[in-house]
Amino acid sequence: MRLAPAGSEDPRVILRALTGALHGAGPALALGATPDASDEVPAGTAVVVTTSGSTGVPKSVILSRSALTASALATAERIGSGAWLLALPATYVAGLQVLVRAIIAGREPALLSGRFSAQAFASAALMMASARGGRREPTYTSLVPAQLTTMLDAAEEDETARRALRSFEAILIGGQALPVALRERAQAIGARIVRTYGSTETSGGCVYDGIPLPGTALRIVGGEVQLSGPTLADGYLGDPGRTAEVFPRDADGTRWYRTGDDGVIEDGVLRVRGRIDNVIVSGGINVSLDRVEQTVRGVAGLEGAVVVGVPDERWGEASVIVLARTTGEDAGPREDPRLLEDARAAVAAEIGPHARPSRLALLDELPVLPSGKPDRRAILRAVF
Question: What domains, with CATH codes, occur in the chain?
């Protein structure tokens, strides 16, 4: 089957090509860093998404029409159907799925053009308000935590931003862990937040608020979260070895996706504790940087912090808290040494003294990937 580059990151261009690919009326669509167009893709392929993520190497994920459609239908079954606003890059799987859901529902999506801002998002959101048969049409969107933070900061002073957030039937939040404090801020102003978990390999989020979507199966094997169901990717383009390793079949032939995430199921709800491989060895003890980061983000003033590992002369490796420097009236608290003291105390209590961060580093701005996730490699280069 033929693979055609999108040729543009313009969501309108991608929407047209994606519509043809989903309906089988056009070639499979290549998004991201375009793989070799001569590569053969399986029949039924709709999209090949090439991404390196925040720490990995490039991978080209093959997504079929049936997988993308199953994901969109399962989402509608869980949260309802309506009109969607695209506020993420369409080349990123969460943004791609916004377009897929709109196409499957037969509705034209609203598109947020240009750089994300609170004003632009609020304006687009409130313009979506409409009714069918005298009943308000439900609206939905997907954001990453950094975008939600931008909106909540604006909502503290701007009623328009508050009304925009409250206007959605559901706001899907994914891409990275959602700090509890951030979710509580959103709920306090009446925003309906749904925490999603998934990846490009699962056609986007397939576990909502810790509960798998209809059709998705979940298990923990050796501490690793594994997922199965109709939304799984066909594998990696041109890499059968990686495909076999990441998508194994069990004895009854069921195909699973090995997420690489450490998790537990408590009372039927999935709790992800971080990446299995995002670990440093400090003083001879393994320390999960994800667990440290989750704990640090629970400290007031550190909700947007990122934790990275660096070489340390004494301990071998140590963790560093990295935070964006604020300006103006808010500059002082970020320089307060008590922030590091509070973070170290919280980590010691939650994980143990061995996991305490060594220092707090301030950057003018935290580098991010197009998906909105922190660019951990760039952050690491900036602090070490």
Answer: 3-200 (3.40.50.12780), 278-383 (3.30.300.30)
The per-residue pLDDT for 370 is: 74
For 335, residues 6+ apart whose C-beta sits below 8 A from its C-beta are 362
Q: Among 290, 280, 342, 343, which residue's Cα sits nearest to residue 317?
A: 280
327, pLDDT greater than 60: no
At residue 332 the predicted structure's pLDDT band, cuts being 50, 70 and 90, is: very low
In this prediction the pTM is 0.81
pLDDT in tens, 151-175: 999 999 999 999 999 999 999 999 8
Give me the amino acid identity at 297: R
Query: Which token pair is 325?
Result: 């420097």
